[in-house]
Each structure stands twice: as structure tokens, then as C-alpha cells.
Amino acid sequence: MEPERVVDADDLERLAKLLTDKRQLAEQYYARACQLVGQVQATPLAAMLRWAGDTATELGNRAAIVRAAEKGGDPFGALSAFGLSTALGTVSGEDRTRLTKDLKSVIARGATARPEQRTAAIRKFFEKVTAAERASLAIEQPDVVGRLDGAPATVRYAASRLLIERAVAHEQKDLAALKATDPKNPQATLLEKRVARMTEFLQPRGTGDGRSVPRQFLLFDPAGDGRVAEVFGDLTTAKHVAVMVPGITNRLDNYDSIANDAVALLKDHASGRELPESAVITWLGYDTPEFGDSVLPAKAEAGAPALHSFRAGLEAARGAKFALFAHSYGTLLSSKALQEGTPFDSVVFMGSPGLGPTIKSAAHLKLGSGTQVFAMRAPGDWVSYTEAHGRDPAEMAGIRRLATGRSSGHSEYYTPKNTGLDNLQTILTGDGCVQTFMGSPKLDDEQFGAANVRVLVKELQSRVPQWKVGELATAFEPIITRVMNGSTDIPTLTALTTKTLADSGLSGYFAPQDVAQIVGRSLTEAGLDQR
């Protein structure tokens, strides 16, 4: 067996310098040989000179790759996968220091600027650097470049791939250690799912026409629940781009469901190929809430500026149209981003809990001229029925409610071969006419118990401190489900509410008579029979 070879970057660089230093002497020999024996006879020396120069450059390239690989991952593979230069030997140590300093300065100057100004400055910086310098930044500073709105997409793809490779190696070690010491720990299951998802990220994706392409990430951050932004299709040629913003309980470990929706959206179901001149982006770029804190707007408010910046940094074909497809809590975040001036040509709100208490029509979103706004609410979508964050956009003036076909509940808006997905693809491509919803526009005509739930939840929330609202929502999820199923009489609902408050430790905020009054008011104001 051949012994393992250890490649040392310092040795490679010393050898490259030696060849370069000797080149001047070799050129003198070549010139003298041309004088003595003629240029034709000196040809072997010329070939040797070319070899020495090419070899010195290649050794420098390899040294730069080895240095980046010492931090983890396969930098050469990451650059090659997205067509970036691997000629890193042309970027000296001084160049790398200068690039790091200059980029840091550009980022610092843009920290307080509008997203459009900040991303424009980042674009201008990358336009001025060489191809080799772009590649060097991708593998030297992947944690900075990978999430840098305004940086070239291919540079971000390469940087993100390196970060994914490093995260997989790190979490595989954590998983092995956890299984060895505490194999029944629930955290092991979560880690297994995370490692499985990230390993999938490194595998090529089929496009439906026999091709396989590397997966493309404009953002990857494994911290906490994880943040991801993935591109399906070719952004550089896309004339139609959709940005998908998901809602509650979406994380790195269950990201595959979002990716599957993106694949369904981009797929032409007649041919099985991807829609021409189109791209879809999944943007899981914020800390999504769990059910409990989904009743609070804090995470939407924190995530909205990130979506604005992300959109400002996107590059696509000249004149491309951008659509925003927001789902669940993502509609609240998107509403706040749109109010900040985030530009989209069309917007679709799906399964929305409301767009904020002050938004009562499309006009309140303050959208640009010509922006089309649509909404979808599938039958049985309890998130829409709660109206936890304001009116359902499906019932607002200036917003067209679209048909959802056979979709039902909260998570079937991207069901293949269905009216709902057909509508989304029509909005993405601008090709064809959408099918609008036919029937009563009133939410309460659609779902028995919807009004009951809204009144009950709002009455309960009004009596607990804001920091306890999340706990309240978590505790009452089973009751909401039961009310939707028809258990709405006063004795049953009062008993359930009293017990739930006691079990959750929230009963101290309510007097005994409060519960009966709240339940009675919820039924009376909802217009339901008090049996």
C-alpha cells in the first residue's frame, strides 16, 4: 500500500518561489543559447522555461487550496462545481490581506445604509476584483461571503457549499459522541435529521431533463434551528423568479418539505422538466416561531429587514419579474417587509394568520404601482381562521382570492396537479389566467367555530401579560382543534378552559367567574347556539 502523502502548504509555496527565483537565470541561459546555437536549437530550453513558470503557478494554486482545506471541506470542489477560478496562486498573501480589509470596510460603511445602497456597494466591490480574488474570498471567508447580499450568486454558492461540508463533519462527530454516551437522548434523533438534510445538500439535484446539477445555496447557517436559502433553476437567465417564505416550525431538520414544494412549483407537469426561464428560491432566512410564540409579531419584525436585504441583493436576467409566495407566519413577515419598500411584482399570501393589526386592505401595504396581490385560504386552514395577527387577506379589498382546488388544511398549497399550484405557476410565469375563488368570501361561512375561536383566544390573551401569550397559545392548541370539530357548548368549553389554565400555571390571571364569562362571550359574539 502506498504511504499517505502529507501535503504542506509552506513547502509548496517555497518550491514555487524557488522556481520563480531561478527563472531569471534560466532566461539568461536561454538568451545566450539563442545567440550561440540559434533559437530552433534552444527550443528545449524554452519548453523548460514554460514548464517552470506553469509549475510555479500551479504549486501556488495548490498551496492556496491546501490552506483553505485545513479549515475543513473541499475548496477545490466547491469552486469547480460553480465554475469559479481555481488559479488561487495569483492571489498573494498581501492580496488576501488587502481583500479582507477592503471587504470589511465596505460592509462596515453599509451597515446603516438602505438595503439597496448596501447591496449596490457590495456588487461594485466584486465587479472590481479579479476572478481569482473572488474565488479566494469564497474559500477564505465563506462565513462572510456565503450570506453577503449583493455578492455574485456563484461565489455565494461555493462559500455555502464549504460551510455545509464543515457543518456535516462537525455534527457527525457530535452525533457519534452522543450515541456513544447517551444513545436514547432525543437530541440524537434531531441531529440525525439535521445531518441527513445537510448530506442531501451536497448531492446533485435532477432537473427532470436528464441533467444533474449541484444544489445552490445563497445562505446556509446551521446555528440554532438553521437558516437556508436555496435556488432552484438558473438565476442568471431567469426572467421569472419566485421567493418562497415559509412559516412556523420550519427548521433545517425538516427543510426537505420546503425543498419539495419548490421542486413542485418549478416543475412543468406536462413535460416533467423545469419551467423555462424560471427560478424558485426558498428563503428560510429567519428564526421561525413554534406554535407558542407564533402569536407574537417579534420574529416577523426581526426577519423583515433580512428579507428586504435578500431581495435587494438578488441578481437575475435584465427585466426579470419577481413574485413573493408567503405562507403562514411568513405572510406576517412578508407584510412587514413589503411595508418597508421591498419590491415585488406580484405577491401571494397563503394560509395567513393576518398581515398585522393595521393592515385591512391591499392599499395599507403601500406597494409599488402595478403590484398584483393575491391570497389563498384552503378549507380547514385553522391558521387563517384564528386571525391571530389581523384580518385574513383573503377577505381584504384589493386582494384577489384564488381557488385552491382539492387542497385542504394548512399545508397543501403546493399539492401537484391541483388548481392551487396551477395558480401559483401562472403567477410565476405570467402565462395564462388565474382561477379565482368562487363562493362566499366570509371566513365564518366556510368554517364552523372559526369566529368562536377568534373571540375566545383574544379574550384570553387580553388577561395575561405579553410574555405569557406564547405559553397560552401552546396550551390552548388542543382546545382550538376541538372547537373546530364542533365541541362548542358552554359546559364543555368552560371545563376544558379551566383545566387547561390550571395545568399550564396560568389560572392565577383569571378569577373563577372570568372563564365562564369569556366562554359565554365567545359563543354569543360568534353567534353560536349556547347549548
Shape label: elongated
The end-to-end span amounts to: 84 Å
Enumerate the spans where pLDDT stays under 50 for 5 or more consecutive residues: 1-6
Q: Could you estimate the helical fraction of the residues in percent? A: 40-55%
Order of helices and strands: HHHHHHHHHEEEEEHEHEHEEHEHHHHHH
Q: Could you give the order of strands across the largest sheet? A: 3-4-6-5-7-8-9-10
- Please summarize the sheet with the most strands: 8 strands, mixed
Strand count: 10
Q: Which structural category do the helix and sheet elements fall into? A: alpha/beta
- Beta-strand residue percentage: 5-15%
Provide a count of the helices.
19
Rg estimate, integer Å: 29 Å
Q: On the 0-100 scale, what is the average pLDDT?
A: 85
Structure description:
50% of the residues lie in helices and 9% in strands. With 531 residues, the chain is an alpha/beta fold. A hairpin with a 5-residue loop joins strand 3 (216-221) and strand 4. Helix 1 runs antiparallel to helix 2 (43-69), helix 3 crosses helix 8 and helix 17 runs antiparallel to helix 18. The longest helix is centred in the N-terminal third of the chain and has 29 residues, at 9-37. It starts with 8 loop residues before the first helix and ends in a 6-residue tail after the last helix.
Task: Indicate the topology.
Elements: H1 9-37, H2 43-69, H3 75-81, H4 93-109, H5 115-128, H6 131-140, H7 142-145, H8 153-181, H9 186-201, E1 205-206, E2 212-213, E3 216-221, E4 227-233, E5 240-245, H10 256-266, E6 278-284, H11 298-313, E7 321-327, H12 329-339, E8 346-350, E9 372-376, H13 382-386, E10 400-401, H14 419-429, H15 443-446, H16 450-461, H17 469-484, H18 490-503, H19 512-525
Parallel strand pairs: 5-6, 5-7, 7-8, 8-9, 9-10
Antiparallel strand pairs: 1-2, 3-4, 4-6
